Amino acid sequence: MTQPPQLPPPSPFPAQRNHANATAAMVLGIIGLTLVPGVGIIAWVLGAKALEEIDAHPEAGWTNRDHAKVGKITGIVGTIYVIALVLFICCYLGFFFSLLGLSSTS
What we know:
Elements: H1 20-34, H2 40-56, H3 65-105
């Protein structure tokens, strides 16, 4: 009589898996810095939520906490970049229109 094959013992470590929002935050943060400046706020929010979930449930075995952190940081930098860009454009246009107004009244 043949014996069934023996199964290996279960691993003492929990199964490790990737948090989808952490990776999405990192990708959106990089896209927000390079291609589409307005996406930074989404990366910031997703990265912050992913960090909260990863820290709240360490038994879940999430492996990509660093992706969430990078996504949050690049989201913050991208958001600051967008705000600075909008302020610069507003000041530039305000200066330009004030010059037009001064030249037309002379």
